[in-house]
Amino acid sequence: MSYYLYWGKAKPEDRGDSCHLLPYHSLDVGAVGWYLLEPQRPLTQRLASQLGLPPDSLRRFFVFLLGLHDLGKFARAFQGVARPDGVELAPPIERLAYNERHDRLGALLWQSCWIEWLQDGTLRWPDRDLDRKARRQLSETLRVILAPMFGHHGQPVEAGRLEPTEFFGHDDCASDSEAARRFVADWADLTDLDWPVDQLLCPEWREAFLELSWTVAGWATLSDWLGSNRDHFTYCQGPMPLADYWPIALERAEQALQESGFAKPPEPVPYVGLASWFGSQSITPTPLQREAETLPIGDGPQLFILEDVTGTGKTEAACILAQRLLAAGHGEGLYFALPTMATSNAMYERLGNLHQRFYAASSRPSFVLAHGARELNDTFVKAVAAEQPEDRDYTADDMTATTRCNRWLADSRKKSLLADVGVGTIDQALMGLLPFRHQSLRLYGLARKVLIVDEVHAYDHYMQTLLNQLLAHHARQGGSAILLTATMPRAMREALATAWKEGLGQAPASMQEETFPLLTQIGHEMEREVPLATRSEVSREVRIDWLATEEQALETVLAALEVGECVAWVRNTVDDAIRAYEQIRQHHPDPERCLLFHSRFVMADRQRLESDVIERLGKASTPDQRRGQVLISTQVFQESLDCDVDHMVSDLAPIDLLVQRAGRLQRHVRGLRCAPVLAVLAPEWSDSPDAQWLRRTLPGTQAVYRDTSLVWLTQRVLRELGAIRMPDEARTLIESVYGEVADLIPDGLQEARWEQRGMQGVAVSMANFNSLSLEQGYLCHPEFDQWQEQQEIGTRLIDEPTVNVALLKCMADGELTLWTEGEHHAAMLSQVKLRQSQAEKLAGLPADHQTQWEALQKHYKALCFTQPWLVESDTACSYDARWGVLFSVNTDNQGDECESA
C-alpha cells in the first residue's frame, strides 16, 4: 500500500500542484529539525550531555521521531477533509468522520501499532524478544519521547480510549495503517535509525527526558512551522523515492532557516574589556563590573544576582557576564526581561548595537523588542512571519501549522523569544510556565539563551512564585541567568537562590551576607556572596521633606519653577497625575513646558512622549531645555527613562519605589546645584494610625497599595533617618519595611496587613495552581485539562485582565483606518493597553464599519486579538494626544472620571 496516496498539505488555489504529499511534508519538517539540532549548537550539546547521548546520535534519533509527527494524517477520516484535483489519492471513506484532531490520531495510530512494528522489523529495533517488564518500560518511555512530536500543535495529546477503526480504514486502494507502516520503515532506513536501547529501558533516563521534554516540544513545533512554509517547501504531488526527496528537503530547509534567522547561532567572541564595546581606552570599570570581568565562570548552569545602587552600571555588568557565558558555551543568545513595556523600550534603546559586540563580525544576530512597537528588526520579522497564502484549515479547532504560526507571530511580543537577542517584558517568559498553546516555544527560546531579569524586586508574590519556578526550570535545562536589582530584601534573594538550587537538585541556599552592594553567584556545589566597594560618585544622600496636602505639593513645584529648576511629580495613579497636570498647567507661565506621561497613551504617543521627556530631561539635555520643565508622571518615569530632574515631589509609596524615584533626582552631574531633596506627599505622621489614615490624604494610593503598613513603615524609617543614603543605609531602609517587622505594625493597620498577607498566600497558591508541573514533562493529563488558547492573562494575578485596544478613525470618504495610518508598524502604534473594566466603557464598533474592521484585521495580523475603538463615535469616552484615554467627554475636567492604574 503506497504512502504516496496520502496528502499532507492542501491549498485552496488552483495554481501549481494541488497538494503536498504526506511523506514529503514529514521529511520537510524533519529536515528543519535536522539543522536546528546541528551537533555544534550549544543547545544540542546540552541536550546530549543531559541525556547521555553523543550529539550525532541524539540528532538522528530525535529527527526520526520528529518525522512521525503527522502519522495521524494517514487516517482516511483526515484525508476526506480535502480532495485535491489532478492527483491519485486514497479515496475518502464516508463512514469515517473527522471529529478528532490529527495530532491525537497520530498518538492513536502509534499506540495501536508500535508493538507490531517493533516485532516485524519496521522500527529496526535490535532486540525483538523483550520480556514483559522491558516492554512495559519501553512502552512508557516511547509514550514520553513521542509526546512532544505528536503534540506539535501547541499542547500535548493522548490517544485515550479512541478506536483506530473509527478513523483509519482500508479498501481496495489503500490500507491506512499499512501505508503508515511502510513510511515508518523507509524513514527509519533513511535516517539510519539506531535506537539508544540502554537509555530507553532505564527509568532514570526517562525522568531526565521529562525535564527536557518542553524544550524538545518547542523544537518540534518550530520545525513544523518552518517546514510548513510554502514559500520554501513547494508542493509536490509526484511520487519519488524518499532517498531522492531528502536532499531536496534538506536544501529547502537550509534556505528556510537562513532566511528566518535560524540557520546557525551567531558566533560568540571572548570578552576583552569595556574598551572593545565603546572604543575608548579611558573607561574604568566600576567595582561591580570589575568583579563581573574577573569572577570564575564555572561549569554548568550559573545564577548571578547583582545588587547595587542606581548608576553603577548593573546593565553593563550583566552584559559582561552574558558575553563571558556565551563565549563559554552557556547559551546561544540573550533575553532581557523587564517589568513593563516602558522599561523594555528603555533597555532596547540603551543596548543599541551593543549586543553585536558579543559576536563575531560575520554574525548578524537578530534583535527584537518584545512588544514590537519600537524599531523591530524587520528582516527577521519578515522572514519568520512572512505573509503567505493560508493552507486549508482542517476544521475549526484543527488549524494548519501555517495558520497557527501566523496567529502566534501576529502578536509580535513573542518574536523576541525566538530571536537571538530579545528585549521584552517578564510576562512573555513567564507565560512559558502557563498552559497556553505553544508555551513550549517560549521555553525552547529561553533554553537557548542567557536570561537577564532586571528590576527583579518589582514583582508581586504571584509573579515572584512564577519567577522562582522559571529559574528552577531554566537551571534544569542547563541555562544561566542574571538578576539585577537595587533594592531586594534578603528573604527574596534567598528564595531566588533556593529556586535555582532546586533546579540543580541541591539543598536550599542559605544567604548570610548583609552588606550592600553585593554579587551572589550560585552554581553546582557553589555559593559565593561577594561584597563590593562603592565609587564615591554614586554614594549620595537625598534629604526628605514632608508635604501634607496636594496644595503644598503644588506650591513646592511652583517654587522650584521660580528659581529655574526642572521638577518631576511622580503620582501613584493616572487619575491623580491628570488632575495635577491640569492644575500645574493653569499656574505655569509657559504651559508648553509641562508634560504628562503615563501608561494610557497609544503607542505612537507614548513613543513621542518618551522621546520628548528624554530630550527635555535626559542626560544630554541643556540648561535652556531643562529650565522650568515640569513632568507629571506615574510609575513609568521611575522605571524606564534615563532622565533626571533638579527637584522631585512624590506621593508616598513603599520604600523600594521611593528609592527608585530618588534615583531620578539629580542623577547626572550638571554643575552647581542645591543638595537633592525629595518632597514626599503623605498623611500627617501618627504613631497609632487608623485604617483610613492613608485614604484621607491619598485615596488612590490606598487603592493601589492596599497593605497600608508598608507605606506607614516607609514613612517611619524615613522620618527616623531623615534621608535616603545609598548605599550606606540601603539594607536598613529595605529591611525596615520588608524584614522582620511584624511587632512594629500599629493595631489600626493590622487588618489591612493580615488581609494582604492572606492575599499573598492566595497569590502563591494560585501561581502554583495555574502553572504547569514542568518536572512532570510534556504529557497530556485528560482528567485535568489546563490548556487554553491565546489569552494574555495569567502572569499578573493582582491586575484584572488587560485588553489591547486599537484606535480607529474615519477618513473623509468614510473609510475606516488606523489611528496612526501611514506610520511604520501602524497596527502596533495605534494600540493602547487598558484594564478590562476600562475597555468595557468604550463604545462598541458601529455595525456599518464591521466589514471594514475585518478587512483591517486581515491586512494587519497584529490586530487579531485587539478590541476596536472608533474614537469619534464614542460619546462617553475620548482620546487626546496630550491627556491620553479619557473616560469623560468633559474636557474641562479631564481627571475627575479617570480610572486609577
UniProtKB/TrEMBL annotation:
It comes from the Bacteria. One of its GO terms (molecular function) is ATP binding. Pfam families: Cas3-like_C_2, Cas3_HD. SMART domains: DEXDc, HELICc. Signal peptide: none annotated. Keywords: Antiviral defense, ATP-binding, Helicase, Hydrolase, Metal-binding, Nuclease, Nucleotide-binding. GO terms for biological process: defense response to virus. The keyword Transcription regulation does not apply. PROSITE patterns: HD_CAS3. Residues 15-226 form the HD Cas3-type domain. InterPro entries: Cas3-like_dom (IPR054712), CRISPR-assoc_Cas3_HD (IPR006483), CRISPR-assoc_Cas3_HD_sf (IPR038257), DEAD_box_RNA_helicases (IPR050547), Helicase_ATP-bd (IPR014001), Helicase_C-like (IPR001650), Helicase_Cas3_CRISPR-ass_core (IPR006474), P-loop_NTPase (IPR027417). The keyword Cytoplasm does not apply. In the N-terminal section; belongs to the CRISPR-associated nuclease Cas3-HD family. This is CRISPR-associated helicase Cas3. It comes from Halomonas nitroreducens. The gene is cas3.
